[in-house]
Amino acid sequence: MLPDAPHSEAGFTLLEVMAAFVIAALATIVLYQAGFNGAAETLTAARYQEALVRVQSRLATIGVLTPLQAEQLSGDDGGGFHWQLHIAPVQSNGALTLYAVQVTESFGTRQVTLTTEKLAASP
Fold it and tell me: What is the pTM of this model?
């Protein structure tokens, strides 16, 4: 028969199990938090990508569907996206005018802005 553990060490097994349980619970909480943060960042990245595609599409229509003239326009794209367009003349030589074009798509507190310059016949 094995000798019994000394009486002073009798409660340590329960204490060790409880400490291991607390450590495992904390590790689980940290892992869940990291997973949720990763999912939230993935959603934000997807929304940013969608805003970028929307800005590029709107920018491509300037001078084709939207005339090149000094103006500021804005609107709602749906799905929580809002756009702003700013067109301003930069330089003119009489026959041609260079316009600065800025398109911004915003969603929540974030926004994507693209700028370019386009050349058109002077009005």
Answer: 0.71
Degrees to nearest 5, angle at CA 57 with 63 and 68 = 15
Residue 87, Cβ neighbours under 10 Å: how many? 21
Helix and strand element counts for the chain (H, E) = 1, 4
DSSP state of 66: B
Structure token pair of residue 96: 């041609």
Q: Measured between alpha carbons, how far is 96 from 40 in angstroms, rounded to an integer?
A: 48
What is the model's pLDDT at position 9?
58
Q: Residue 121: which of 58, 69, 43 has the closest Cα?
A: 69
Name the pairing type of β-strands 96-107 and 81-92. Answer: antiparallel
CA distance 42 to 87: 33
